[in-house]
Amino acid sequence: METKNVMIVGVGGQGSLLASKLLGFLLTEEGYDVKVSEVHGMSQRGGSVVTYVRFGDKVYSPVVAAGEADFIVSFEKIEAARYASCLKDGGKIVVNIQQIDPMPVITGAAEYPENVLEELKAKGVFVDEIDALSLATDAGSAKAVNIVLMGRLAKYFDIAKEKWIAAIEKLVKPQFVEINKKAFELGYSM
To answer: 20 to 30 Å CA-CA from 38: which of 8, 21, 54, 152?
Structure first.
C-alpha cells in the first residue's frame, strides 16, 4: 500500500494531540507502519498546532510535505485555509465550522476573513463541513470536538466503526469514554 497522509490542524488546547494518538493507535492495530509527528508552535497561547499521521506498508518520514496530504482534519476554519496547500489533488478537508479568533483579531489589529470555506470550495477543494462543537456539546462535552471530527474522518476509511470505538475505549480516560463514544457516533452519523 502506498503511504497515506493525514494532517490534523487546530489551535492549542482543542485536543488535536489526542485525535492523532487515536488515529495512530488505530492504524497500528490495523497492521500499518505508522509515523506520527507533532508540531506545537505557539499552542499554549492559542497558536496553530499541526500533527502529521502517515501510514502504509513502510513509512520512512513522519512529515507531510506540501501537496501530499490525503486528508486534512481541521478544528477551525482559518486553520483549514492555512494548510490547504498541503492537500494533494483529490484530497479532502474535514473541517469544524467553528470560528476561533486569533490574537490579531481579538486585539483589533485584523479582521477574521469572510467566506474562508467558500473560497476553498471555489478553488475545487473538497470540503466536508461539520458543526463539531454543537455535536460535541450534544454528546455531553464541548471538549469532545476532536472525537466528533475523528468520527467524521472515519467515514472515509475502510476500517470498521467498532474498531474506532475500541480504540477510544483503550485511549480515553474511563470517566470520559461514554461521552467520547457518543461524540464519535454523532460525527460518524452526520
So the answer is: 152
Distance from C-alpha of 41 to C-alpha of 32, rounded to nearest angstrom: 28
Collect all residues with Cβ–Cβ distance below 8 Å to 1 and sequence separation of at least 6: 32, 56, 57
82 within 8 A of 16, measured Cβ to Cβ: no
H helix runs in 11-160, sequence order? 16-29, 77-83, 103-106, 116-122, 132-139, 145-154
Nearest to 37 by CA among 21, 25, 22, 48: 21
C-alpha span between 13 and 5 (Å, rounded): 23
Number of domains in the chain: 1
Q: Which amino acid is at 35?
A: K
Q: Are 22 and 4 in contact (CB under 8 A)?
A: no
Question: In angstroms, how far is CA 51 from the centroid of its own chain?
Answer: 9
Question: Which domain range does residue 127 map to?
Answer: 4-189
Q: Kindly report the CATH number assigned to the domain that includes residue 19.
A: 3.40.920.10
